[in-house]
Structures are given as structure tokens and as C-alpha cells.
Write a structure and sequence with these properties.
mainly beta, disordered N terminus, Elongation Factor Tu (Ef-tu), domain 3
Amino acid sequence: MKKILALLLTAACGHGFVAVATTLDSNFRETTYATVGSGVTGMAWAPDGSNRLFITRQSGVVQVVTNGVLVPTAFATVSPIYTVNECGLDGICVDPNFMQNGYIYLFVTVSSSQQQIIRYTASGNVGINKTVIVSNLPTAGQNHNGGGVGVGPDGKLYWAIGDNGNGTGVDANLTSLASKVGRANLDGTPPTGNPFADGAGSNNDYIWARGFRNPFTMTFQPSTGALWVNSVGTLYEQVFLVNAGDHAGYNDYENNQPAGFLTPIIKYRTGDVDVRNIAASTGAARLNNVVNFTTTATHGFRAGEKITIAGVANSSFNGSVFVAAVPSATTFTANQTGANATSGGGTATTLNQGNAISGGCFYDATVPAAYRGNFIYGDYGSSRLMRATLSASNTVATVDYFVTGSNSQIDASVGPDSALYYIEYGGEIHRLAYTNFASQQILATPMNIRMTEVGQTVLSVRLATQPAGDVTVSIAHSAGSSDISVASGASLTFTPANYSAPQNVVIQAAADADTAEDTATLTVSSSGLTSEAITVYALDTGVNSAPEAPTLENVTIDGETVHVGLNGQSGETYILEGTTNLLFPWFPVSTNTLTSSYTNILDPFGGSLPLRFYRARLLP
């Protein structure tokens, strides 16, 4: 029987009650960050230091949560929208150059036969300039629409679509974007380098990889830039590390892909477990604390998978182990302390994780080393989140339960305060924070910054525990390209009162004459504390010089009207924004395309306010 990830639920099945989530790791504390109402399908933090979390609803509404409070006015309401079954607003991502362009991308079903990638420009907490980036993406108006969307480290837009619930685009099909990962330039055009592009030929030039049943979510690994795709399955839930031209095998294979196909790096049986018999006599052989297990049939286990061994004649082999390696289809190894011995018989049983894999993220923050870079993902049906640790070679080392009782988990992300956040379809946003610090520590997020040349982004910094007095933290360039630097926030002061509130460090990357990606290391340090290294990657976008930055002058007040003079570059478009407190939100006053280097802008109500501050920024 086919299983679907149903986003339209009855009350008994999802949002009719409030779940009590419980972390299984005593180093973490679980709290409710916000309650935002049902129908949530995704989340994304703004990388601009505003502490804004964007959330999407299946109904087409995008909303903003700031510091745990839901902004009452919607950021945007997508129209047209089609919301039958799994259709609707199913995915969101933020442009890495958000501080300059304000771009937010959405994956949305607009009719029973079409999906689109659309873009809004954030002006304060309001989305403006709706733009269709990629249109005519396939759907049958039911399920397996996919919904994963993101901007990759190459500056390209990626998205994932399933087989539309009816087998569209599976196997060797290269004409349909169904059952595929797609890739486009940020303006929606097919980029050069897509593996199956043939111009005027029959192939769809957007195809990046193929063979996916229902890739509802995806994420890029911050440290490597690798694309990880979570695909909801029929027999197996699978996580794939996807490269150009890969074929994950659907609808012929799930966790049994032969040579030449992409195999999952994480998998689990859909709503069940796999049980394999261990060969008699010599099916379990331990040497120097490493056990080689032999099964009587193909086991399908993957590295890092948790296996329960039971019934082996020598009981010292029994218990839970993690798969260390898979030498063959009927053997696997595990680390297990014990005397050298040989035995056999018994069973090997996989971990029951759930029945519908949902969103995940990498823990990219300066938390204790055991958690750095972990992959945290959820299962919509089992109310669980899992934690996967990775080896030095970036292979999966362990997978185990992390949180239980998360009702219909949808997505997860790391917040600017270095805590983990995850959101449920019913609208509960949970905060999972590490609290068991042995000593004071600098918390910085993210550890791996991906940005563009001629761009800016924010590093968030705080202290782990309350200090006895003021603490100064410094951020400085310590290695790599000198084009990457600290624009502001190079010295931060934390007090016993504000130590837990993230402070912002603005990182900038200057244009240069080459076409290579720049990298640099920033060191975050404080006297007596362990320093932290932040790696910055600045993608060369081919822009060797920036348009002239705007300046403001000749600000005068005439009754309730404020006159603001704006200097810029003729032909470029600038937006003037205002605020009353130098904090967020900034509200749009006027958008102007300059016909000369100067224009006068009117704010008809600015003079009636006790305070009014202005800024101008270039629109791409």
C-alpha cells in the first residue's frame, strides 16, 4: 500500500491536541518558543541580525516571528494558490545575500497542474515585488509534490519534486521535472553545467538529479556545501547526499539500489523495522573490540544505523550497536568492547524511527564538540527527532532518538542564539538549548558562513552562562582572503544582564578581479576563554564592482512632510526606509529608479513622529 505524507490532517491525527515534546539528552532543555497556529509547512531565519523567523503555511500565508512573538500582519499571502491534499505553500528559503537584496523564495502549488518558485523582497516585515522565478513545475494536484527549496553554495536555486503520486518522471525519464531535483540561476534561467541539458533537445534543461519519490525537504551542509535530500518513501525513508546527475532509483528501488544508482546515507523502514537472522556458529566474531556480523540474507543496513543484537548464543554480543562499516551485502561491523570471541545465531533489528521523514538541519554553531555538525531531522508520523553524528570523513557514525513527543514535526533550524528550533504542523515552535556547560563558552552562529562577494551577512555571538562582570569578545580576521572582513561589531561587550542576547557582527566581502571563491577564517576570542574559528566562504558572482552606494543629505521638515535627498547612481533603483527607533522593523517609504545621481524623496507623515530615522539601500 502506498503511503503519503498527508499535510491535511484530522484533529485526532495531528493538530487537535498539544503534544509534550521531551528531549532524551539531559544536556538540553526544551521550551516552547512560540505558538503560531496550524498548517505550518516550513521555517527560515533571516540572516540579518533581526531575530526574525519566517514561517510558511500551507494556505499560502507567510508570517514573521520576532523574539518569540508572532507579527500580526502577514508578510505575504500567496495568490493564486491550490491547497488540495499536500498542495499549497510547501517550501521556503532565504537568499544568502539577504542583507542586500531582501529575497525570500517560496515553493508553491498555484493550480491543479502547476507549481512555481516565486520570490518576494522583504521590506521590513512586508513582502513586496512578487516575482515568478520558475513556472510550470509539475503537479497532479494531489500529493508527492516535493517542496524542498534552497540556494546552494554555487549561488544557484535548487528545488525538489516527487513523482506527483502517479509515477510521473520516474526511472530514466529526462523530460519531466517530476521525481527530480532541479537547478536554476537566481533569475530562473537554466544554468550552464546542468548534467542533462541539451538545449533544443527533448531533455528538461533544469534537471540536476533524478529518481526521488517525495523529497519534501532538503538542506545544504554548511561545512561542505553538499546537498542532503530527505525523501519520503513507500518501503523506506531515505536521506540522500545528492550530486549532479545522480539517480536515486525510484520507482524501481528503495534502499536496494544496485551499482550505478545513488544509495541513501541514512534510511529506516517505513513504519516498521528490519529483522535479519545472524548466521549460526560464526555469524558473530569479535576481534580487538570490533565485531563482524554475518547475516543469512541481504541486510540493507547503512553506516551509523543503530542495530539491536539479540539471541546470539554468546550473550556478550547482545545489545545495541552502531554499524561502523558494511563490507558486503551480508556483513556489517560494529565497535563493541569485549573479549575476542566467536558465536552465532540470533537476530539484528533496526531502529523504528517512524513512517514519514520530515525536515532537518545541521547543528552549525559553537556548541560543545560532540554536537557540532550533527544532522538533526524529524519524522512527521512518529513524533520523534533523530540525531545523526558524523565522522571526520563526513560519513554517518551514529543515528539515534533525540526528541520524542513532537507532534507532526515539519522542519528544524539553528537560531541566532545557537539553540535548535523545530516547528510542528500544528504551529508549536520548540526551542532546544544546550544548558550543561562546564565553564563559560562563546556561542557563535553560524560556524560556516556562506555569502557572496559585494555582500554582507551577520554572525551572531553570545555567552553560554552568566558572567560575574562585563566580558569583552573580539572578532578579527585571522587567515585567508583579505577581501573578507568585519564591517562592524569587532568588539562586543556582554554584561551579567545581557549575556544571553545575541549581538551582531556584520561580515562583508569585497569585490575582486578574480573569479574564484574567497575563503577566510575569523577568530572569536575573549581573555580566559577558548577561541572559536569561523569559516567564511564568499562566492564570486562575477560582479567586480558594486553600483554606487546611496547616501542621504539635505533632510528638512515642512510641517508633517520630511524631505530627504538621496545620492546614488543613475539607472539604479533604491528604496528609502524609515523607523522610529533604529531597530527593526524598517518600513518602506519610497522606491525610486534614479534618472540622475540625485533625487528628493518625500515622507508625508515623518514630521508627525517624535523620532524618525532613514536609510537607503540598493535594490538588485
